[in-house]
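Weekly structure sync, notes
Attendees: PL (lead), two postdocs, one rotation student
Agenda item 3: pending single-chain targets
PL asked that the sequence for the first pending target be pasted directly into the notes so everyone works from the same version. It is reproduced below exactly as submitted, 419 residues in total.
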Amino acid sequence: MIKREIFSKIWEKIDSHEILLLNGPRQVGKTTLMNQIKEKLITERKVSPEHIFWFDLEMSEDLLIWSEQTSALSALPINDAVNKYYLFIDEFQKSKTIGSTLKVIHDHYPLIKIIITGSASWYLNIDESLAGRKRVIPIWPLSFYEFLDLPKNHKTKILFEAAVKQIKNTAGKTIEIINGHLLKYLSYGGYPAVITADAKAEKEKILSEIINSYILKDIQLYNYSANTLQVKKILTLLADRVGSLLDINNLALNAGLGRTAMLNRLDLLRNTFILHLLPPYFTNKTKELVKNSKAYLIDSGLKNRLMDNFSLLPQTKYLGQAAENYILAELLKKIGDQPTFFYWRTKTGQEVDFIIKQDNELIPIEVKSGNEQNLPNNLRQFITLYKPKTAFLLNWSVVKDVKFEQCQIKFRPLWFPIF
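Predicted structure, written out during the meeting:
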């Protein structure tokens, strides 16, 4: 069983009155996490299985129960005012009327703890009945560290943990070994079923199934006026433009759509956690800034499957694109998808890949797929303008610290955790 870093954060809230919503892309392990919570309740809390209720709304009989408030409440022990119960609902967004029912349970039956999973963010904005009653916990594909937690990667995980603690004293050979595992991770991504598959052909097949399942199910569920071939073409175009400025008009032209229709499709991809649009960072200090978002996919394996290219050679342009997408995905897993990180670019082309805003401090991050020895001009310009205390230059294997205008620039391998 894969150990997820997010599990402890979920368990911390098991005694709270909030509805716990595990929200994220399809097939990233949300149901597995719910099963682990259920198992821990039974084995450690000694909760009776009779006090645990489980519904999977992808099953027609369970969906029918939750299609009406009366039938849902009749399936629960709402008349028991003594004992504690746990209600698990998988893919809760399948029921269009479930929000008001969950509100009633939350407000009137406090002995029933609710844990649910969802695969879309649009529902959170539409259904106001859960406002102030839910705690949304984003669930993403596995991180690189979680990938290393697999038994077959155990030796490298030990090297990784030691390297993070003493990165300046880490041997080049150790960095090389970890880099080799990073290439494997970047090639096929972090979906649990893909990571646990052994053969490359099987990994590629699973990625194809994830893409096809996503396109078919989510388009039908959210009633977007788009056919599957059209959405797949848009995904492929975006995969080829990872890390680039999003040009809506050009993308629409290449996809054979109007601007409004393209915005509709991008909304679908973003709200079902396949696409992330990174906004620019700007202040009143200058108006000479680009204000388009940059486009990324949430998993490198999906990107490579769409491009039909799983070959990532060290210090190549294709690796550079994959590395930037990887850093974006790792940041999402660490700090979420709230507007706390950005990119920075001037109209003259100076750009810093990522800007993290934390406690009123800015942390610029520049990503390079090769061995970077010098401080790039774009990073110098940002430091001069915004005076950050710390900056990161993530690259293939160079490790050193450089001081520039009172800013400490840390050269670190791509896999080095910033947080």
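Discussion points:
- The chain has a mean pLDDT of 91.
- Residues 200-222 form the longest helix (23 residues).
Action: rotation student to compare against the earlier draft before next sync.
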